[in-house]
């Protein structure tokens, strides 16, 4: 993805990279017709017991077999049932050896850590994955807005967006061409607000974010690409 327009296409980055992290964990493995039996649901065998299968079926748009397969991969890689932020950052950094992905990984981890207890459980993973892969456009954009709204007050400020943009540039590192000026993140924040801050009050609400993104063909197409990943 090119650096131009990143302030809008970061939604696609979130989806792509989260899928990459899950694959690194071994969570997104092919679903075999034999999946079932012993996974029914071994959800009580880990030290951190996740929600029951029926509740996860209600919370997500995955089928029973998909949840069983996802859980098998999660349990194999995370036998404790939990992933802390340091582990998440370590895995994430493997995809960006040319840059520093730690800050962006922190923001992404925080977005998935729904109860903000400092650890991701299986429920956090599948609920987030369900939104990104199977959710409505509104749900996906709400999730992305929450990522950018660092202090969760319902508004994206220029200061918050600058932190996000700096973290993206840090993560991309030397793979950006041409080499970026130090002022590039701030310039992209200004472009972001020119597009998103429709009433010019200095903050972006979810309604403004939603309206602008829905009019952007690149973002709308990115919402459809990953729906059949599993």
TrEMBL record:
Membrane-crossing segments per the record: none
GO cellular component terms attached to this protein's record: monoatomic ion channel complex; plasma membrane
Alphabetized UniProt keyword annotations: Calcium, Cell membrane, Ion channel, Ion transport, Membrane, Metal-binding, Potassium, Potassium channel, Potassium transport, Repeat, Transport, Voltage-gated channel
Alphabetized GO MF terms: metal ion binding; potassium channel activity
The keyword Lipid biosynthesis belongs to this UniProt entry's keyword annotation: no
Pfam families for this protein: EF-hand_5 (PF13202), EF-hand_7 (PF13499)
Family annotation (PROSITE patterns): EF_HAND_1, EF_HAND_2
Cellular compartment(s): Cell membrane
Domain EF-hand as annotated: residue spans: 100-135, 136-171, 184-219
UniProt-listed CDD domains: EFh (cd00051)
SMART domains associated with the record: EFh
Broad class of the protein's primary localization: membrane
Family, per entry: Belongs to the recoverin family.
PANTHER family named in the record: CALCIUM BINDING PROTEINS, CALSENILIN
Name of the protein in question: Calsenilin
